[in-house]
Amino acid sequence: MARTTDGDGTPVPQRLLAAATRLFAERGYDRTSVQEIVEAAGVTKGALYHYFGSKEDLLHEVYARVLRVQQQRLDAYADADEPVETRLRGAAADVVVTTIENLDDADIFFRSMHHLSPEKHKQVRAERRRYHERFRALVEEGQQDGVFSSATPADLVVDYHFGSIHHLSTWYRPDGPLTKQQVADHLADMLLRALRP
């Protein structure tokens, strides 16, 4: 079965996701029809249903693809043969960069996640929990080793960092005074300062 329907070589699933992401960002999930998505992607409804099954599946994948990348990168940082402070700082900065690189996806999802079925919602929460638990484990490792202060519970430290990340879409602009890496470095440094013994 051919994976593309035009000459640019972009696989159909990626074209559908790109079209859905753009339309969800512009119009909102609930105001975007399946027909509009397939027209924007240049495919048929049959192609959409072959790869995704439903518009809800597209919404889930918009967020899940970002989370998969972030999980892989966090796992690489966590498993590296480096001091825990280096690993945590790298992971803390990386999640900011990857969120900014996918700001539309994250914004769409947080605005629209209430449209997911209870089953999909539960699945997303489990995926996010896995990420947060791995991140928290780095904080706890540093606290147990005496590298980080244990005055603040690790859960609260993680919530503090991710709370700032979830608000990026409300203020970050690519043409603003700070690059994505500068924002990432500032937030990661703030996290480490908060953990200093």
UniProtKB/TrEMBL annotation:
Q: What species is given as this protein's source?
A: Streptomyces kurssanovii
Q: Which PROSITE patterns match?
A: HTH_TETR_1, HTH_TETR_2
Q: Which UniProt keywords apply?
A: DNA-binding, Repressor, Transcription, Transcription regulation
A Pfam family this protein belongs to? TetR_C_24
User: Domain HTH tetR-type: where?
Assistant: 10-70
Q: Which residues bind DNA?
A: 33-52
Please give the name of this protein: TetR/AcrR family transcriptional regulator
Would the keyword DNA-binding be found if you checked this record's keyword annotation? yes
InterPro entries cross-referenced by the UniProt entry:
DNA-bd_HTH_TetR-type_CS, Homeodomain-like_sf, HTH-type_TetR-like_transc_reg, HTH_TetR, KstR2_TetR_C, Tet_transcr_reg_TetR-rel_C_sf
The answer to whether keyword Oxidoreductase applies is no
